[in-house]
Amino acid sequence: MANEGPDPRTFKSWEDAFEYAVPAVRRMEKQLRSDIASNRERLRTLVGASYRDLLGTAESIIQMDEHVGIAETHLSDLSIKCNTRALEKS
């Protein structure tokens, strides 16, 4: 039966680790390093996804700005072509 060893999450301070034998501390270190690597990868995935979402949103804003610019141009052209004085006399 393998001894799982102490759970470092239950330690009150770093000094608690020194109450165990060297092999147990090394197992804890190995597990902690593995957990750190796993968490680092999860964080990269989360940040990467958020960054891609941000880039997609920025691209949508740029496209919306272009469409608004085109609509403003069309409205301006219509305004120029429309003789408002003639409409006021009617």
Distance between the termini: 99 Å
Tell the overall outline.
rod-shaped
The stretches of 5 or more residues where confidence is low (pLDDT under 50) are: none
Q: Rounded to an integer, what's the Rg over CA atoms?
A: 32 Å
Average predicted local confidence, pLDDT: 86
Structural class: mainly alpha
What is the helix fraction of residues, given as a range?
A: over 70%
Number of distinct helices? 2
Q: Which band does the percent of strand residues land in?
A: under 5%
Query: What is the H/E order?
Result: HH
Largest beta-sheet details: none
Query: How many β-strand runs?
Result: 0
Task: Give an account of the 3D structure.
Helix content is 73%, strand content 0%. The protein contains 2 helices and no strands. By secondary structure, it is an all-alpha fold. It starts with 21 loop residues before the first helix and ends with a helix. The model has no long low-confidence stretch (mean pLDDT 86).
Please describe the structure with a list of short key phrases separated by commas or semicolons:
90 residues, mainly alpha, 73% helix, 0% strand, rod-shaped
